[in-house]
Task: inverse folding
């Protein structure tokens, strides 16, 4: 027998940026609690609005399953004396198990005979477990700071006003965060701020929508917002830009969404669009509108939490609110343009980057040195532009615009650089230094921007490692993981064949008083290569990268080519046999005390199988040598797949460790050549390839 279960926690307005995570965690906690109790259930649906977290569980068992539980006691030889009488150990076990001593039996647990007792467990009524499951889930929610309210001793993210627990048509009476649960919920705060009685769980969603003016389903509410915001934008002959993070936040702010379109003065469009967008998004939670060319229009779309009798009044109120915000942005922009980035850079001497690593001015000096070092190695780089961009790259951090709108860093600098008459690529590099900002983000388009972005990241990583603040699993205050992946993406996707170890070594020389510089270089290199490994493991098995990493390489572009080559080789039908053979060869050669000869003496080749292998190795060495030189590792490994048959024949028909010392050494030399040929790309003995 089963019933549907409905749980709802009614609160003051929940934090909008946390609502989605709180809902997911609450639902997960309920599911885990039911699963732990071994209860079966069907579909699970979450509900989340500013004033409630709710879960609907379909087809939940009314009782936990009854099971036979084995209870093991002391070993039989301890439980009975030589006369076969029960000892105190047996008596204690019988008492604990609630049975008579005479009913004790001995049974093997697979190792030794022990006292054994089987009893039935389970059969508890589900309704008796639900309260504790709810309380446990609430206790484990990811809440950074809990609060108390009134005289209550309970703690939660916001004050709790009601709770609802309905199992089938039965109301469960539980004390949840100092509220007595019932079958009553509340409608919209303004449209229907009254109790709504819920008779059965399956009518909850429709009752709230039809009577309470609440769209309880987060996803449904979000879809309504998207559709209506798009319609608003179309009425303005534009297109709404709907970012995922803002959409989530707006969805978490309303229970009955009503999008409304407003305007602002066109004169504000002289301010960088990014500043206007930032102001509308961060301060007012407005969606901005662009034309067919992506140019910002003097309009915005806000999402109200109610149907107003006078929508125009609501719109005008929002227009009045946004006007001073945009005026501030315009004022900051005009004020900043009265100076220039060179003068602003001097102010960076008073801004600390990190107490042990100096000021941000010092950082720009280090970035300049490292960027020029990198520029020397990239043919298309312009050293003058690189030096200028490095000097000015952080100047906008002390501007009024960035102080008010932190996400304008780089963007503000771009506009100020153009205003100062700086070269267009220098200006673009000031924006691009922060790219990529996240996984999947665009890379810098300009060479100057890519070099500054790379130098900035390597300077930060090396400096922070140099003062011993290495990231841990839970703490990475300087975002070194993201910086590492960004640097690696720039090197690989831009095709810069630069040695990462050399770049880190160069970066380390720019820090005064850096102790154990080589240790720092090694630590940074290993850290970044570990990020590289994690990057590849999203698509390939771990051993693919390990096979390449065994060569201890430090040029990311080259590593990338080899990883992809090994991944393709792993799919070949010859791969299992060749991987196994290379593993066998490695084991044989690693056990030898003496140095393996470099050359094979053809006069000592006796068996047809070793002659065939030697001949094929010589042919392939000549064939793949220019392919290796060109860096086409995929083609090279594909060619080496032809070795499968001669290698198999060799191991099937030739005794490597012959009694004749000269024969043995010659055969070891042959295996050494085989291994060396594959090691030109990677150590494929690491591959775990099933035949």
Result:
């Amino acid at each position: 027998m089963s019933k549907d279960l409905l749980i709802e926690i009614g609160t003051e307005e929940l934090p909008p940026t946390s609502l989605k995570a709180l809902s997911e965690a609450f639902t997960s906690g309920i599911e885990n609690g039911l699963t732990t109790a071994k209860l079966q259930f069907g579909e699970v649906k979450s509900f989340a609005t500013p004033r409630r977290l709710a879960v609907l569980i379909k087809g939940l068992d009314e009782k936990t399953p009854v099971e036979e539980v084995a209870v093991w006691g002391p070993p039989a030889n301890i439980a009975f004396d030589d006369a076969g009488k029960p000892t105190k150990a047996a008596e204690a076990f019988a008492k604990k198990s609630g049975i008579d001593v005479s009913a004790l039996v001995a049974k093997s647990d697979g190792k030794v005979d022990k006292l054994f007792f089987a009893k039935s467990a389970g059969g508890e009524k589900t309704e008796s477990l639900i309260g504790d499951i709810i309380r446990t889930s609430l206790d484990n929610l990811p809440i950074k700071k809990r609060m108390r309210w009134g005289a209550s001793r309970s703690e939660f993210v916001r004050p709790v006003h009601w709770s609802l627990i309905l199992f089938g048509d039965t109301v469960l009476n539980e004390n949840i965060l100092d509220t007595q649960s019932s079958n009553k919920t509340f409608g919209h705060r303004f449209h229907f701020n009254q109790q709504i009685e819920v008779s059965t769980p399956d009518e909850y969603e429709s009752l709230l929508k039809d009577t309470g003016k609440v769209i309880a389903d987060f996803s449904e509410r979000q879809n309504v917002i998207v559709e209506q915001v798009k319609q608003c934008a179309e009425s303005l002959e534009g297109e709404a830009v709907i970012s995922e993070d803002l959409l989530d936040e707006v969805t978490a702010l309303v229970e009955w969404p009503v999008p409304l379109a407003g305007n602002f003065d066109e004169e504000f469009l002289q301010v960088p669009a990014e500043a206007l967008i930032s102001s509308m998004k961060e301060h007012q939670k407005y969606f901005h509108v662009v034309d067919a060319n992506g140019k910002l229009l003097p309009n915005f779309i806000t999402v109200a939490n109610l149907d107003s009798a006078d929508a125009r009044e609501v719109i005008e109120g929002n227009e009045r609110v946004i006007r001073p915000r945009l005026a501030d942005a315009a004022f900051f922009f005009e004020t900043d343009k009265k100076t220039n980035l060179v003068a602003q850079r001097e102010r960076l001497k008073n801004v600390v980057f990190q107490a042990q690593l100096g000021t941000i001015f010092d950082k720009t000096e280090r970035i300049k040195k490292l960027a020029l070092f990198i520029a020397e190695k990239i043919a298309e780089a312009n050293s003058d532009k690189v030096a200028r961009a490095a000097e000015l790259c952080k100047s906008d951090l002390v501007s009024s615009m960035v102080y008010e709108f932190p996400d304008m860093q780089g963007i503000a600098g771009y506009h100020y650089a153009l205003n100062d008459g700086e070269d267009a690529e220098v200006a673009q590099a000031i924006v691009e230094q922060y790219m990529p900002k996240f996984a999947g983000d665009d890379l810098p388009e300009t060479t100057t921007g890519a070099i500054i972005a790379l130098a900035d990241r390597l300077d930060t990583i090396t400096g922070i490692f140099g003062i011993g603040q290495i990231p841990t699993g839970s703490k990475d205050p300087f975002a070194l993981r993201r910086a590492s992946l960004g640097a690696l993406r720039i090197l690989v996707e831009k095709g810069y064949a630069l040695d990462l170890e050399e770049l880190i070594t160069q970066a380390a020389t720019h820090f005064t008083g850096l102790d154990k510089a080589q240790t720092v270089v090694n630590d940074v290199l290993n850290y970044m290569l570990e990020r590289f490994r994690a990057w590849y493991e999203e698509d390939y098995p771990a051993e693919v990268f390990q096979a390449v990493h065994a060569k201890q390489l430090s040029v990311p572009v080259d590593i990338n080519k080899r990883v992809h080559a090994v991944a393709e080789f792993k799919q070949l039908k010859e791969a299992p046999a060749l991987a196994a053979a290379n593993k066998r060869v490695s084991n044989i050669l690693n056990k030898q005390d003496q140095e393996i000869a470099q050359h094979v003496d053809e006069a000592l080749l006796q068996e047809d199988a070793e002659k065939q292998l030697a001949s094929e190795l010589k042919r392939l060495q000549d064939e793949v040598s220019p392919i290796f030189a060109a860096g086409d590792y995929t083609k090279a490994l594909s060619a080496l797949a032809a070795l499968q048959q001669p290698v198999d024949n060799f191991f099937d028909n030739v005794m490597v460790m012959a009694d004749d010392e000269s024969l043995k050494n010659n055969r070891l030399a042959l295996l050494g050549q085989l291994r060396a040929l594959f090691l030109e790309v990677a150590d494929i003995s690491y591959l775990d390839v099933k035949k």
The longest strand covers residues 2-11.
